[in-house]
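Customer escalation, tier 2.

The customer says the design service returned an amino acid string that "doesn't look like it belongs to this structure." They asked us to rerun it and document both sides in this ticket. The original structure tokens are below, unchanged.
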């Protein structure tokens, strides 16, 4: 089988490496050799062992011998146009591009289905962790109630380096970039957009209805302070960037991205560095958890190449991956969703607050501040609670949700 790679960055070059290194084993797995016939990239790679670089997409589109194309370009344009043209031309497309799957997955899956070919995206969520296949295959008997977890390796690495090892944000981010974890623009990691795209994909798979990312409330890790980490430790929590999708009280699907207090008794709390962890909950199922390296060249490339093998094994068979197209009424704003909250206040005296766990800052630090863990409440109830405490002369300095108790 001749394949092509579009985008020879961290993951694309990893695909080249894995296909070359594991050639013998791959023949056993899919019954034929995999030959990389074209690599599309605008950059030059004079030192590469591969000599099949092109800057012209048509070299791939018009090569009748290329049956599977790996899209590791990232971003929407031109990846969307290229993927669509390839699928329309009857070529399988395998991708790690979560932004594209989240934005146009419904349409691209439909084209693949009509053509009896495949659009596969195991590498788009969780790097090397198998999570897409379990969701469309092993866990389909009952509906999920919740999917939540750590979906971004870069931010988990940064949080670990900063708050467990005392590293600065800048150094931790630079190291994550050097290790090939971060997006081309790391703001997508730090501000939660990458997690947002991933939870949109997991949500569609788990609940069967597409959601749109611009209605997923998304908050990153940039506002977390050393004080928040201090309180988390004192109260028995870790702070993690979480993507959460749930069947909402109002019947729609609610998805959100937020840094959260995760109790140390929850396995997500112990997941550090580049590792991701995803918990799927269902009424019949109980809880299952997926864990592994969530970013990085070879783990992600392994997931891509596994999809290539699957496409070769299903040359003329569409592996049905399906969800309903987006309908506004199916996506909930989450107004009735309740979470317990951690709220940090500045105040010389702690007012009488009922129904909350409370901790004051280390007395030696003389900071005149305290934090509370509230009961589960809606965002509106939280605003009212904060206002009531502020009425007592305190000032709210920050708040985070709790998840996983
Ligand atoms: N930037 C992403 C992350 C890459 O750090 O998780 C893997 O999707």
């Amino acid at each position: 089988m001749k394949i092509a790679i579009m985008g020879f960055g961290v993951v694309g070059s990893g695909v080249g490496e894995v296909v070359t290194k594991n050639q013998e084993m791959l023949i056993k797995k899919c019954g034929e050799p995999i030959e990389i016939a074209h690599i599309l990239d605008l950059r030059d790679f004079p030192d590469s062992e591969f000599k099949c670089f092109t800057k012209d997409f048509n070299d791939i589109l018009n090569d009748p011998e290329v049956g599977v194309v790996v899209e590791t370009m990232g971003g929407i344009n031109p990846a969307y146009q290229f993927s669509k043209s390839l699928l329309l031309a009857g070529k399988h497309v395998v991708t790690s591009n979560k932004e594209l799957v989240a934005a146009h997955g419904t349409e691209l899956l439909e084209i693949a289905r009509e053509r009896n070919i495949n659009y596969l995206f195991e590498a788009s969520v969780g790097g090397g962790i198998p999570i897409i296949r379990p969701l469309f295959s092993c866990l389909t008997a009952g509906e999920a109630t919740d999917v939540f977890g750590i979906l971004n390796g870069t931010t988990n690495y940064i949080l670990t380096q900063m708050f467990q090892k005392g590293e600065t944000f800048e150094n931790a981010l630079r190291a994550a970039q050097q290790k090939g974890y971060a997006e081309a623009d790391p703001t997508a990691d730090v501000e939660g957009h990458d997690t947002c795209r991933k939870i949109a994909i997991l949500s569609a798979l788990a609940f069967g209805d597409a959601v749109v990312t611009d209605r997923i409330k998304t908050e990153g890790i940039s506002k977390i302070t050393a004080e928040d980490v201090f309180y988390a430790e004192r109260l028995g929590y870790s702070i993690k960037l979480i993507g959460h999708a749930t069947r909402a009280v109002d019947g729609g699907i609610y998805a959100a991205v937020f840094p959260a207090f995760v109790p140390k008794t929850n396995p997500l709390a112990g997941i550090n560095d580049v590792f991701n962890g995803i918990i799927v909950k269902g009424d019949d199922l109980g809880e299952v958890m997926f864990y592994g390296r969530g970013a990085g060249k070879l783990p992600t490339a392994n997931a891509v190449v596994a999809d290539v093998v699957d496409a070769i094994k299903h040359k003329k068979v569409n592996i049905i991956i399906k969800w309903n197209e987006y309908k506004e009424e199916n996506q909930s704003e989450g107004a009735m969703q309740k979470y317990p909250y951690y709220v940090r206040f500045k105040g010389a005296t702690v007012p009488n607050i009922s129904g909350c766990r409370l901790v004051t800052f280390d007395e030696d630090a003389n900071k005149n501040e305290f934090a509370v863990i509230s009961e589960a409440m809606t965002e509106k109830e939280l605003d009212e609670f904060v206002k009531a405490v502020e009425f007592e002369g305190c000032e709210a300095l920050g708040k985070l949700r709790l998840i996983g108790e």
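Tier 2 assessment: The sequence is consistent with the input. Residues 127, 152-154, 181-183, 189, 194, 294-295 surround L-homoserine (CB under 6 Å). The chain has a mean pLDDT of 95. Sent an explanation to the customer and offered a walkthrough call.
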